[in-house]
Amino acid sequence: MPPPEAVGFVYADGSQSRPTGETIFNYIVTNRLSKDQIGEGFLDTAMLEPGNYLLRVLAADIFRNETFKDTQIEVTR
Fold this sequence. Notes:
Number of helices: 1
Strand content: 25-35%
Strand order of the largest sheet: 1-2
Number of strands: 4
Distance between the termini: 40 Å
Shape: globular
Radius of gyration: 15 Å
Number of domains: 1
Oligomer: single chain
Largest sheet: 2 strands, antiparallel
Mean pLDDT: 84
């Protein structure tokens, strides 16, 4: 679990963890948490040429659990 001051940087609205029921972790994917380092990030598409791109989001934990999701995006001007 991240330190309490990191919660707002890591978990997005709609996240919930309860002793019963469904646990949902929605992440702010542009932000980073590594050990005690917290950073806010942004996706700046202005730096990309117009075209189609594959956006891959990877989440991993200290137990080496990993998952990813690919999303196609189109950058236009």
